[in-house]
């Protein structure tokens, strides 16, 4: 049996409990008490599985309260060719020069053209299964910097007993992202536009979730990566990408691979760290940020300092315009010995003075044990990388993926394969791609006039009271 705890000490229960709980009652993030260890013999068995079957095996390592056949059905219903196309996740060679080649792990084949679909589709089905068994309803409260919102809404729109309240920052998403989200007209979907940044939205979500009486009264849950269900589903594609790269390279099992991950909220790269902790032979995890380089600064200096709204830049890779990475708490909890009190003290310090610092020797040990290397990219870098990738490969990448490939090129290591994680398709960020290449990437016919669709959203104040009032009026009765 796998039980869950909060990074700040609270006991939770099993996977299904963690799924519905979202955030711990003490304000901490939920994690398994222990990670499963994947031996070489099991890796060999998993290496030939298709994506739905591999997802079943990996997620079952975190979900001991789910029957394996039940979980298999959920994964097969989630990872269909109708939702994701053949193969679900794809892999391509990307040439950067005559001497440098990386792999691109295609994670954006889902219904909203972003990697968030991979976890969100299965999360929606997990929610529905648990709620049906328990006879409960759920009001999901989330925040988005652009892609999580639409992925959640597309995954939850037909789910019985679920309503979604999604906060998004006013004026900080691409037109395509806004159109994709705000054109969802289902009765159970509520788009709430808030002045401020993604961090403003996420702070509101956490504040409401920390009000235990309100949370219980309205059955508030989460789909952000503060929900462990998201993290567990994202672990899968690290295993899948690893196996596919070894096939391409004709390398033996247990050969090391490095993953390069564009990251704002730290959830995507945390999933890679979990895979490494389970025994997947990952040499390094290269974290790529944009101009909002809070995480890069930490791994270079040991200082974790959140930024104010005025210090949070509006960039051409907007989904990473984040200066307060929620999942970073899970990482620090793990790499500093799973000391709940220490983690709580660090985040209390972060709340009170806006930063904390890790000793240089401790930081050195953290980097060595985790394998995390960091770097950052600016507008000029991503524009030039979009050009380079297109000129050398006739492949168009989105600006966030370009950030990742740029940081990969700055940390290139020819001793083992490097795999860059795709974050979205370029269609979602046409303005930046057009600036780089002088043309707009092709769209699927179904998306041709998405910006012309009527939008449904409500603007609210960036206050806890305003958000609570809206939920009280519109929440699904529990």
Folded structure, characterized:
With 478 residues, the chain is of the alpha/beta class. The protein has a domain at 87-113 and 229-437: 3-Layer(aba) Sandwich (Rossmann fold), CATH 3.40.50. 45% of the residues lie in helices and 15% in strands. The chain contains 20 helices and 16 strands. The protein has helices spanning 15-21, 40-46, 51-60, 68-78, 81-84, 116-134, 148-156, 175-182, 198-210, 212-217, 228-249, 267-278, 294-301, 328-335, 340-353, 360-370, 379-393, 399-410, 430-437, 464-474; strands at residues 4-6, 11-13, 30-32, 90-95, 101-106, 138-143, 162-169, 189-194, 220-221, 257-262, 282-289, 303-305, 355-357, 372-376, 418-421, 458-459. The strands form four sheets. The protein has a six-stranded mixed beta sheet, sandwiched between helices. A five-stranded parallel beta sheet has the order 9-6-7-8-16. A three-stranded antiparallel beta sheet has the order 2-1-3, with helices on one face. The chain is globular and about 60 Å long. The relative contact order is 0.15.
What's the architecture of the domain at 87-113 and 229-437, going by CATH?
A: 3-Layer(aba) Sandwich
Helix fraction bin:
40-55%
Strand content: 15-25%
What does the radius of gyration come to?
21 Å
Structural class: alpha/beta
Shape: globular
CATH topology title of the domain at 87-113 and 229-437: Rossmann fold
Largest sheet: 6 strands, mixed
Instruction: Please tally the β strands and state the result.
Output: 16
The parts where pLDDT drops under 50 for at least 5 residues are none
Spatial gap, N to C terminus:
29 Å
Number of contiguous helices: 20
Side by side, the strands of the main sheet go: 4-5-15-10-11-14
- For the record, what CATH class of the domain at 87-113 and 229-437 applies? Alpha Beta
Mean pLDDT: 94
């Amino acid at each position: 049996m796998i039980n869950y705890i909060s990074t700040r000490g609270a006991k939770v229960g099993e996977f299904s409990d963690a799924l519905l709980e979202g955030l711990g009652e003490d304000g901490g993030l939920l994690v398994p008490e222990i990670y499963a260890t994947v031996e070489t013999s099991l890796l060999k068995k998993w290496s030939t599985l298709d994506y739905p079957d591999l997802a079943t095996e990996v997620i079952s390592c975190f979900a001991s309260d789910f029957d394996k056949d039940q979980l298999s059905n959920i994964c097969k219903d989630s990872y269909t060719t109708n939702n994701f196309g053949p193969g679900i996740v794809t892999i391509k060679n990307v040439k950067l020069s005559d001497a440098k080649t990386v792999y691109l792990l295609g994670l954006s084949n889902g219904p909203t053209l972003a990697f968030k679909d991979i976890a969100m589709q299965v999360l929606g089905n997990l929610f529905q299964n648990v709620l049906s068994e328990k006879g409960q309803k759920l009001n999901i409260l989330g925040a988005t910097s652009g892609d999580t919102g639409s992925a959640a809404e597309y995954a939850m729109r037909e789910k019985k007993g679920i309503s979604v309240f999604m906060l998004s920052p006013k004026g900080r998403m691409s037109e395509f992202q806004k159109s994709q989200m705000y054109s969802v007209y289902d009765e159970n979907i509520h788009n709430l536009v808030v002045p401020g940044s993604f961090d403003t939205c996420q702070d509101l979500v956490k504040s409401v979730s920390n009000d235990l009486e309100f949370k219980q009264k309205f059955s508030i849950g989460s789909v952000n990566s503060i929900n462990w269900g998201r993290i567990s589903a994202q672990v899968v594609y690290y295993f899948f990408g690893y196996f596919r790269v070894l096939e391409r390279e004709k390398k033996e099992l247990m050969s090391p691979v490095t993953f390069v991950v564009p990251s704002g909220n730290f959830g995507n790269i945390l999933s890679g760290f979990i895979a490494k902790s389970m025994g997947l032979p990952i040499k390094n995890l290269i974290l790529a940020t944009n101009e909002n380089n809070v995480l890069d600064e930490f791994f270079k200096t040991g200082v974790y300092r959140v930024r104010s709204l005025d210090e949070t830049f509006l960039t051409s890779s907007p989904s990473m315009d984040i200066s307060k990475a929620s999942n970073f708490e899970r990482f620090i909890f793990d790499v500093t010995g799973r000391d709940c009190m220490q983690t709580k003290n660090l985040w209390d310090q972060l709340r009170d003075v806006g930063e904390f610092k890790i000793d240089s020797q401790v930081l050195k040990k953290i980097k060595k044990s985790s394998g995390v290397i960091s770097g950052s990219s600016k507008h000029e870098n991503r524009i030039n990388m979009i050009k380079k990738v297109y000129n050398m490969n006739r492949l168009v990448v989105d600006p966030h993926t370009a950030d990742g490939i740029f940081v990969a090129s700055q940390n290139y290591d020819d001793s083992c394969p490097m795999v860059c994680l795709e974050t979205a398709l370029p269609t979602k960020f046409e303005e930046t791609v057009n600036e780089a290449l002088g043309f707009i990437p092709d769209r699927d016919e179904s998306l041709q006039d998405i910006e012309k669709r009527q939008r449904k959203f409500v603007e609210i104040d960036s206050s806890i009271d305003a958000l609570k009032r809206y939920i009280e009026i519109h929440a699904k009765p529990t």
